[in-house]
Amino acid sequence: MIEEEDGISFVDHTKAVLEAGCRWIIFCPYSMKLKRAITIAKKIKALCRSYDATFTIKDNIELVKAVEADGIFLMDYMSVFKVRQTLGEGFLIGTHSRSAHAISIMKQLGADYISTGPIDASLPDMVSAVAALTAGVRQLGIDIPITVYGSFEPDEVPFLIEAGVSGLTFLGGKDFNSGEEVKAYLEPYFKI
Description:
Elements: H1 10-20, E1 24-27, H2 34-50, E2 54-58, H3 61-67, E3 71-74, H4 80-87, E4 92-96, H5 100-109, E5 113-119, H6 123-139, E6 146-150, H7 157-162, E7 167-170, H8 179-186
Helix pairs in contact: 1-2, 1-8, 5-6
């Protein structure tokens, strides 16, 4: 999740995580003016295309349409239906949920994937929570990718994947001064 410039540009940060092996970028422009956000989003989209990575934007439907991103991630799960009507079927829509019942509703409203978290617990508790959620979703007969977001250590990743998640979202919060620092931080995760 590319949230802010941590001493390096959004574009350099994106390039570094793509070089490290990431294949899904969520750009979070927050309070950025639309013109600047469009300029940066177009550059990130071009990088994503060159690495065959998916490019989504957090909570900004206008920006998604302006740059023709692959999709949008919505923190306000209540807007999934409205956004699906606005964007149509050609865009991915993701949202957040921590319950199997809510995931069932989000799927019916048009969500393509779900993210759950943050998971800031001990490894056994984290794996148990994720396993219970994915089992509940399967029990309801729902087929939808579920990612988990939080702060993870490389040795925790196999347990989370085994618990049924489709992917991991690494939260920002680390200060990086170069693309090489980003790449060095992420590389152990992609050697699993």
